[in-house]
Amino acid sequence: MKTENLPVSRKERMGENLRKLLICIMIIVTILTSLGIFILRDFGLGYKYYEINNSQTVYIGATKEENFLDKTINEYLEQLNDDGYYIVTSSLNKAFIENIAIIPKSTINEEEIKSTIIKHLDVSVLCTKLEIKNDETIYYFKSQTECDEFVKSLNEYITQEYTCNGDTQDYRVITKQDILDNKLNSVKEQKEKNDAEIRRQEELKRQRTKVTSRGGTYRVNKNYSGGAPMASYTYISSYYGKRGSGNHTGVDFAAPAGTPIYAWKSGTVTFVGWSGGYGKFIIVKHDDGTVSRYGHCSGYACSQGQRVEKGQTIGYVGTTGNSTGNHLHFEIQINGCFVNPLNYL
Prior knowledge:
Strands 8, 9, 12, 13, 14, 15, 16, 17, 18, 19 and 20 form an 11-stranded antiparallel β-sheet that branches. Strands 3, 5, 6 and 7 form a 4-stranded antiparallel β-sheet that branches. Strands 2-1-4 form a 3-stranded antiparallel β-sheet, with helices on one face. Helix content is 31%, strand content 35%. The protein contains 5 helices and 20 strands. The protein has 3 domains: 44-119, no CATH class; 125-202, no CATH class; 219-343, Glucose Permease (Domain IIA) (Distorted Sandwich), CATH 2.70.70.10. The radius of gyration is 48 Å and the shape is elongated. With 345 residues, it is α+β, with helices and mostly antiparallel strands. A hairpin with a 4-residue loop joins strand 15 (280-286) and strand 16 (291-300). The longest helix has 39 residues, at 2-40.
C-alpha cells in the first residue's frame, strides 16, 4: 500500500508548487504593471519651446502639438479678421525652436506659450486716423465707417473741426472703446455747460428787461456805460425828474435781486437802516461834500460810520419799501439839493 501512494503525493506537491508559482508571478506582474502606470502616468511625448533672446536660449514651456506655433498664429490672425481688422502684414519677431522630448504632462503650459507668441506677433493693419482740433489724442479706427460714426456722435453735441486720413499701423494702436466713451462723455459735459451758460445769460437778460419799478418800462441810457453804482447794469426803469404828479429825485437802475451795489465815490457811511418808502436805505457822504443815497436794498454790506472806497460793495439790490420790483433807486445831493445822477456818472 505505501509503495503505491508515493507517486501520487509527489504529483500533488508539484502541482501545488506550480500553482503557488503562478500566483506569485501574477502578483508580481500586477504590482509591476501598477507601479509602471503610477510612475509613467505623468509623462508623455511632447514638444519643448525655446525663445532666442539676446543670443541666449530661454525655455518657455512645452506643448502636446508639434504645429502649435503655426496653429496659434493662424487662429489669432483669423480672429483679427473676424473682428474687422484688414491685415496687411504679419511676422513673428522672435525665433522659436521646437524639440521633441519626453516631458511631464504637468509642465505643459500651452496657454502661456500662446500668450508669449501673440505678444511677439507683429501685425500691420489698414486703419483710419482721426485728429480733432484742440484734442491732443489721436484716434485710430478699423475702418472709415467706424470713424464717421464716431464723429457723427460727437457732432450731435458740439460740431468738431477734424482731419481724417487712411493709415497703416500695428493693430494694437486701434483706439479702445473706453477712450472713445470718455471723449464722447467730455463733449456731452461741455455741451451741458454751454447750454447752462446760455440759459443763465438769457435769464439775466430776461431779468434786466423785466419791469421792476412803479410800472415804468426799461430804457437803456445812452449816456451811461456802466460803473459805480451798478457796474454793467445800464437798464433804467425810471429817470430823474417829473413823474406823474410828483418829482422823481433819483434814477432807478433795474437789476436782479441780490446784485451788488457799489459806492459811487469814496466817503463815510452816515446812515444804514430802514427809511419809509426807501425801504432799506444807505447814505454816504463823500470827501468832496457830495452825498449819494441808495434805496430799496435787500441787504447791507456796510455799517454806519464806516469808511468806504469808490467801487466797494455797500449793499444789494432789492425791492423793499415803496417798490414794485427789484431795482436800485440812486440819488445824488450837492449842497443839500437833488441833482440828476446821470450828469455825474
